[in-house]
Design brief:
Lipocalin, 2 helices
Length: 249
């Protein structure tokens, strides 16, 4: 091989390698969604809290990676990983009532169920602690004969009944009922949280209020909303109150 040909080949190879590296960097491009400065360690100095994400290459409306990067006043970085989703946000609130703000973040999954995922972390004393969030309320739910439905909250033992006669034509058309009788036992669709937000409790402390949607045969067939209020005590979340409200058509 002539010297000129060899040099041309090497140059082309280097150019191709550079292009590949650039493409990989572009493919995994990290974006900063939001930024705040606050003392979240309790030392009286400000940290920089950055919410970051990596969009999918073929759909920038969804983020395949989402995380929070904390540049702390002790010159160290702390990373809080989260799940992938469509949108993400965070706020700084003292959820465990220790006098230092925590990082409370939410991710919208982007699905038809309208589910949100929530994350709660503390960096007090430069110790990274996952405080977790309360699990969704457990419940048993099902359709009943004569176009009725019921929801039973496991935590409280209370049962709530719903008259669905206004939907009888819809259910009959879909074959769920025949002459008012269920064709087969059918459970309702109990979703995870569609909302989980900080609220002030009766004692003046902060807690969390979650909303779960209970649907019939599809997510659009909403039957009720279950609202739960939670307080943080002795290192865990405790259920304060549950309200079950029928959806308005």
């Amino acid at each position: 091989m002539k010297k000129e040909t060899l040099l041309a080949f090497v140059s082309l190879l280097l150019l191709s390698m550079t292009t590949v590296v650039y493409a990989v960097e572009e493919k995994n491009k990290t974006i900063t969604i939001s930024e705040q400065k606050a003392d979240i360690t309790g030392d009286g100095k400000l940290e920089t809290i950055l919410l970051k994400g990596v969009p999918y290459q073929d759909d920038e409306n969804f983020l395949k990676e989402i995380y929070i990067d904390v540049k702390a006043s002790n010159a160290k970085n702390y990373t809080i990983p989260m799940e992938s989703g469509a949108k993400a946000s965070f706020q700084l609130v003292d959820m465990n009532n220790d006098g230092v703000k925590d990082v409370f973040a939410t991710v919208q999954t982007g699905g038809s169920g309208g589910i949100v995922l929530s994350f709660l972390h503390s960096l007090k004393g430069f110790v990274h602690t996952d405080l977790t969030v309360p699990e969704p309320v457990e419940m048993e739910s099902r359709f009943l004969n004569d176009y009725q439905a019921e929801i039973k909250i496991k935590e409280t033992g209370k049962t709530y009944h719903f008259d669905l006669n206004e939907r009888k034509l819809y259910y009959k058309k879909l074959g769920l009922y025949y002459k008012g009788k269920l064709n087969e036992p059918t459970e309702l669709m109990v979703n995870s949280y569609s909302s989980l937000k900080p609220v002030e409790l009766a004692d003046g402390k902060l807690g969390l209020k979650g909303v779960q949607r209970v649907a019939g045969i599809a997510n659009a067939d909403t039957i009720a909303f279950v609202e739960s209020t939670w307080g943080y005590l002795n290192g865990k979340w405790n259920l304060v109150q549950v309200e079950v409200k029928k959806a308005e058509n």
